[in-house]
Amino acid sequence: VVDADGRSVPFKALYGEQKAIVVFVRNFLCYTCKEYVEDLAKVPKAFLQEANVRLVVIGQSSYHHIKPFCSLTGYTHEMYVDPQREIYKTLGMKRGEGNNVSVRSPHVKSNTLLGSIRSTWRAMTGPAFDFQGDPAQQGGALILGPGNEVHFLHLDKNRLDHVPINTVLQLAGVKTVNFTNKPQIIHI
User: How far is CA 158 from the centre of its chain?
Assistant: First the structure.
């Protein structure tokens, strides 16, 4: 993988020494990925540090798109790219929309039409008019490490098939987050 400064980092270095939640996004223009990463940005660093877990997002564009995407989404955790989609292919992540009958991601707020219009507008008004990755590529989420241990694997079937963030956090032993703007009810 490649970091925001163009430096290559071995994929295994992301999870070799400690457990990592690794989220592969479709592309940086995908509105469902943008909204999912906006919610990932709400995971406090303290929650991750307490559980000794890294949170990593991997896209499949040029590394030049990492900093603008982090700025757009407010994401401050680790982000890398796999520009040739080698890891996507190795993990068996599909291209194209699969079964459209799926549970809608709780992290996607836009409807399909409005989200698609916003994605197209961002592509047209961005500094480099490109798709920031293969628009047909699907993503997924994994919990890996330390070492070669695979704790969880979810391969997205379509753009709305993201695994709920709190599910992944819970499986990794990280405190969950209230993603709604509603106050939480505390049981005493």
Answer: 14
Tens digit of each residue's pLDDT (9 = 90 or more) over 37-61: 999 999 999 999 999 999 999 999 8
Rounded Cα distance between 159 and 110, Å, is 12
Q: Which residue has the tokens 């219009």?
A: 117
Question: CA-CA distance, 48 to 44, in Å (whole number)?
Answer: 7
**How far apart are the C-alpha atoms of 184 and 31, rounded to whole Å?**
28
What was the pLDDT predicted at 4? 96
Question: Helices 31-40 and 112-125, interaxial angle, to 10°?
Answer: 90
Query: What is the chain's alpha carbon radius of gyration, rounded to the nearest angstrom?
Result: 16
Please state, as a whole number, how many other Cβ atoms lie within 10 Å of the Cβ of residue 8. Answer: 10
The pTM of this model reads: 0.80
Rounded-to-integer distance, Cα 77 and Cα 66, Å: 11
34's CB contacts (< 8 A; 6+ apart) are 28, 69, 72, 73, 119
CA distances from 48 to 43, 93, 98 (A): 8, 26, 32
What region, left, alpha or beta, does residue 187 occupy, with left being phi > 0 and alpha being psi -120 to 50 degrees? beta
Residue of 68, 74, 77, 5 lying closest to 48 (CA atoms): 77
Tokens at 93, concatenated:
């992540």
